[in-house]
Design a protein that fits this description.
The structure holds 2 protein chains of 2 kinds. In chain A, 86% of the residues lie in helices and 0% in strands. Chain A is mostly helical. In chain A, helix 3 crosses helix 11 and helix 7 (132-154) crosses helix 8 (156-181). The radius of gyration of chain A is 23 Å and the shape is globular. By secondary structure, chain B is mostly helical. Chain B folds into 2 domains: 4-174, no CATH class; 175-241, no CATH class. Chain B has helices at residues 4-36, 43-72, 76-82, 85-100, 107-133, 135-142, 145-152, 154-167, 185-197, 199-204, 206-226, 235-240; strands at 176-178, 231-233. The chains are: A mainly alpha, B mainly alpha.
């Protein structure tokens, strides 16, 4: 039987991962085409949509880098193609490592002695355990969205406020632990907030609308760079 | 031109189809590999290893789907296929809403969210592909201690920038509010107390906490709105004046 080291970097896995990723790319392109056409029908100008596109792309570059770092970590354990596939779909580095660990413990083997069957066990465990959100979305997402939209139709004032409570709740739950952590986390948060405010003022004062599309991307880079200073301060 | 309902329904149909194909692909990969190399794992081992993770991740995943769908709309499927919700998709969509002054829960929000999620996903796929292809030269740079420290504080950097839009009175579509943040006070107090008692627990259960805090913020806002404490000013009100 094929060994663990051979199977994790086998060309078949590269082919399958490559085909899988191409399928996901085609999903994105179909979704983009349909929504872009609808946006034009709704009266958005090409200029406005280009601004949204520029902002979405520039914004997504920096937060994608930790995923690449996660890939390097996972590739050292599980080869290149499988981590590439996992981190291109729903996986996250902490979840994948946890799933690998649990699968190997269940099989009662160490990574050094793992077999090809242990690798397929890892593959199945990683895949199955993260499907809950996707399955539930197939069953319920349309009902959830139309329910939220009906709020708006019943009473436009309360509907607008009610729909804003979702984002407010998410930001409350996610931000408070960062602020309470204090130290570098708090200072990075504040740096980002201040940089965003300053860039927004500059964009308005000098009438640079192009800058507006890059505010979050720039403040992300500047505040992440500031962590070097804050870390030195707290050491 | 399709009506709003027809468009939303068609996007959900497409999303569901993509989600089903994605599930088949995700399960198909290990199945093909296991068949080809005659390396099928013991079913009982798959079950034993999965049960604990399923107990944790299924309720979290369902909580996230319920909480994020009202914001992401029909792009929830693509979001859940490709992951990275709170660190990428949700902030990117919030940013796009701020840029075009979009009100969440509308058809416009659904459309802009779909454009943003598609492009954000494509960007991530390209960056990861570059990482794979340039693994040898990139690895030493991206694993520098300075870069590792900077990326470990990415979430505060992201949320700090987005907080300005959240704190503002404008909730999109020209709708302005007064004292809206009071609606989040009870949820904030609960999260502060829980964070002080067990910060790790709060981090581990964020998915659940969002779901449990949603009705708290929702009904507090509704109560304060009914009492006239939170006020909502529609664009039409300004025109009337």
């Amino acid at each position: 039987m094929i060994s663990f080291a051979e199977i994790i970097d086998h060309y078949l896995l590269y082919v399958l991962a490559g085909l899988g990723i191409l399928t996901i790319i085609s999903f994105c392109l179909i979704f983009l085409k349909k929504s872009w056409a609808r946006a034009l029908e709704l009266g958005y100008t090409k200029e406005q949509l280009k601004n949204v596109a520029t902002s979405a792309i520039s914004f997504s570059i920096i937060p994608s880098i930790p995923i690449v770092i996660g890939f390097f970590t996972l590739a050292a354990i599980l080869g290149v193609p499988w981590p590439w596939w996992r981190l291109s779909v729903v996986g996250s580095i902490s979840y994948e490592i946890m799933a690998t660990d649990i699968a190997l413990n269940t099989a009662g083997v160490e990574l050094a002695n793992a077999t090809a069957t242990d690798f397929t066990l890892i593959m199945f465990v990683m895949t199955i355990c993260i499907l809950g959100g996707l399955v539930s979305s197939i069953l319920f997402a349309e009902k959830v969205q139309t329910g939220a939209m009906k709020l708006k139709q019943k009473d436009s004032r309360w509907g607008a406020l009610a729909n804003s409570t979702f984002m407010l709740t998410i930001m409350t739950v996610l931000s408070i632990p960062m602020l309470l952590e204090g130290g570098v986390s708090l200072l990075t948060f504040l740096t980002s907030l201040v940089v965003t405010a300053v860039l927004a003022i500059i964009s308005r004062k000098f009438n640079w609308p192009w800058l507006y599309n890059f505010i979050v991307a720039f403040s992300l880079i500047i505040s992440m760079a500031s962590t070097v200073l804050w870390t030195a301060l707290f050491q | 031109m399709k009506t709003k309902e027809e468009y939303i329904r068609s996007m959900h149909r497409l999303g569901r189809l993509q989600a089903i194909v994605a599930i088949i692909l995700m399960l198909g990969l290990p199945t093909i590999v296991a068949f080809t190399f005659k390396a099928f794992p013991d079913f009982s081992q798959v079950f034993t290893a999965s049960i604990g993770l399923l107990a944790i991740f299924v309720p979290i995943a369902i909580s996230e789907m319920i909480s994020f769908t009202p914001i992401l709309g029909s792009s929830i499927y693509l979001t859940l296929i490709t992951g990275n919700v709170t660190n990428l998709k949700l902030p990117a969509v919030t940013n796009a809403f701020n840029l075009l002054n979009i009100e969440p829960g509308t058809e416009e929000a659904d459309v802009i969210s779909a454009i943003t999620v598609s492009l954000s996903t494509l960007t991530t796929l390209i960056i990861v592909a570059i990482g794979v292809l340039a693994m040898v030269p990139l690895k030493p740079i991206l694993t520098l201690p300075v870069v590792e420290v900077a990326t470990s504080y990415m979430l505060p950097a992201l949320f700090g920038s987005l907080m300005l839009g959240i704190l503002g009175s404008n909730i999109g579509g020209g709708v302005r509010t007064k004292k809206r943040l009071l609606g989040a006070v009870p949820a904030a107090v609960i999260i502060i107390i829980l964070s002080l008692v067990s910060p790790q627990l709060v981090l581990n259960l964020q998915g659940f906490l969002i779901l449990f805090m949603l009705p708290v913020t929702y009904f507090t806002s509704k109560f304060l709105f009914t009492k006239g404490i939170i006020k909502v000013i529609l664009p039409l009100d300004k025109e009337k004046k």
